[in-house]
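User: Some background: our group keeps a shared notebook of sequences we're curious about, and every so often someone picks one and asks for a predicted structure to add to the entry. Today it's my turn. The entry only has the sequence so far, pasted here. Could you supply the structure so I can complete it?
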Amino acid sequence: MNDAAHVPPRPACVVNCSLYGKQGKLRDISLDEISDVLATDDETFVWVGLYEPEDAVLEKLQEEFNLHDLAIEDAQKAHQRPKVESYGDSMFVAVNTAQVIDERIRYGETHAFLGQRYLVTVRHGASLSYKPVRARLEREPEFLEMGPSYALYAVLDAVVDNYLPIVDEFKDTLVTLEQDVFTETFRRGILRRLYDLKRELTYMRVAVTPLQDVLSQLVRTNSPLVPGEVHLYFRDVLDHSVRINETIDALRDMLGTALGVNQALVTLAQGEVVKRLAGWAALLAAPTLVASWYGMNFKHMPELGGRYSYYILIGALALGCFGLYRYLKHVRWL
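Assistant: Of course. Here's the predicted structure to add to the notebook entry:
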């Protein structure tokens, strides 16, 4: 019979509560069993996963793991800045997460309580499940010998890796927009998409940049909660986050350039229109001026009495307009 059948029903906010050892996952347990289980075997640890937990559940975990009041207070609120806090024999970690929902990027948070023999992950808002992370670790039980700190690394690695496809999608979108910027016709929608993309990248930079500080602290920490062999794994995640942040900065710079080029092209197009209008206005000005002169009520005006004056005047105007047209064409005003 499956061990899970003996586990009492748990609150909906408790995604998982499992006991792990050197052989991998041993069994699922209830929240009430945590302290009893940890008292029996020193080579096991408990991993509890929560999603937007109720206060009663956090209070229960505080009792089971002896968590600090300030850490519990932080976990109850979903608006914490990314940070690492040490509370005696436990550590509290907060990071930002991202998820694409309805073609928009939504942001959430993951809080983690790390102890010598436990890991509690608390998800708030937009955040993918860590079920695939647990499944991977259960397939590779040799890594679980390093304890809950390696499980924390796997969670943070999943958080950082989740940013990669979002950044890659931004790259593809930017390439498309760059091609649209140089089209002959101005489209307001291109400018709006460029602005929206830069805004999303700015939000992502705000989420990713503090993550580097969190990982740097975990790499440099001397806490016994993070063994030396796990530092290498945190350093690898740090390298990934730095690369993502640099990519975001590069994309933001390219977007700023694209916005500037788009504005310059619009201004250039408007200038071309003004030049053409000015050219046609100059062509119309010459005959209008002459016609306005001869429309005055004066008797003694040149060539009024001549038989061919009208035709000569028309020819002179046509020749002058043609010469002006050729000149404006040559200087690209028409």
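Suggested note for the entry: The first strand starts at residue 14 and ends at 21. Strands lie at 14-21, 24-28, 45-51, 83-87, 90-101, 104-115, 118-125.
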